[in-house]
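Q: Given only this backbone (301 positions), what sequence would you predict?
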């Protein structure tokens, strides 16, 4: 490439997270796909401390776009525990749902059967714990008061606690989540417990950013039927200064590169503009440049 051509590229700095986590892996697949689909773009991933740092970095204009979990995004946009963030959504990344796993010989069949029981919620402060607080608040329950909470030093400790009886269930989620894989592959196998239809309606009426998500049959060993769980999409957010034309080009490149990002990342196939529209708490929270492309592509009418 000539020096002149290189100078014409639009550099877009993407905030990801710390090395070794899921966000940087996605960030590499995402940036590679966008750069391939639109050679005028140069999306450059940068390691950060993750969602909670990406929000203030975006607000300060120190990064152009940044990754954030659905719960962190919701709290920032709603001004929960802070002033409201003036940020917009570029696209949905992938779904992150929550449900319980129990031993196959457990008598528990529904969430109500687990009340008052010791529950391994995950590592303290993890995204799964934040998600659990919202889901159970929607059900009129408190994960600390209505259960016996067990917070872990590391997420990998959970399966053993359920296997040896210290915990009645483990909360977690996502396709291929290691804790669920370990439980499903353990001697005797495992079962999953998710909110029922009535539970889902109650949660959605209280927390609109949480969405029903299908867990296809066979996602885990021994899981013979599909499960509907509750969760949210992790998102790519834009700084207030991201130009409409740049957001338009990002959306166009992602739409054109659907198969490319799916081949690069296990859940990359979820990074569609259709899912972006479904994941946004409100349509006006999607960047105007992205909305413009959605209309042109016939995704939004």
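A: Predicted residues:
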């Amino acid at each position: 490439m000539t020096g002149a051509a290189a100078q014409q590229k639009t550099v877009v700095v993407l905030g990801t997270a710390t090395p070794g986590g899921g966000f940087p892996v996605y960030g590499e697949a995402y940036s590679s796909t966008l750069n391939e689909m639109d050679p005028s773009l140069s999306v450059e991933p940068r390691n950060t401390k993750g969602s909670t740092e990406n929000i203030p970095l975006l607000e300060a204009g120190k990064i152009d776009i940044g990754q954030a979990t659905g719960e962190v995004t919701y709290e920032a946009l709603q001004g929960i525990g802070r002033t409201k963030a003036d940020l917009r959504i570029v696209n949905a990344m992938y779904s992150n749902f929550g449900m319980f796993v129990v031993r196959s010989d457990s008598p528990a069949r529904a969430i109500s059967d687990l009340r008052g029981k010791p529950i391994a919620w995950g590592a303290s402060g993890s995204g799964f714990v934040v998600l659990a607080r919202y889901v159970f608040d929607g059900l009129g329950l408190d994960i600390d008061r209505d259960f016996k909470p067990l917070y872990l030093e590391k997420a990998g400790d959970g399966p053993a606690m359920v296997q040896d009886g210290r915990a009645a269930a483990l909360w977690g989620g996502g396709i291929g989540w290691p804790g669920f894989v370990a439980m499903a592959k353990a001697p005797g196998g495992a079962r999953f417990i998710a909110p029922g239809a009535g539970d889902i309606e109650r949660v959605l009426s209280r927390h609109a950013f949480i969405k029903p998500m299908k867990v296809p049959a066979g996602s885990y060993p021994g899981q013979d039927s599909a499960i509907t769980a509750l969760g949210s999409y992790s998102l790519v957010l834009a700084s207030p200064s991201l130009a409409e034309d740049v957001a338009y080009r990002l959306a166009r490149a992602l739409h054109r590169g659907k198969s490319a990002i799916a081949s690069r990342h296990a859940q990359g196939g979820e990074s569609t503009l259709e899912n972006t529209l479904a994941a946004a708490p409100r349509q006006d929270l999607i960047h105007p440049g992205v909305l413009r492309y959605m209309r042109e592509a016939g995704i939004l009418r």
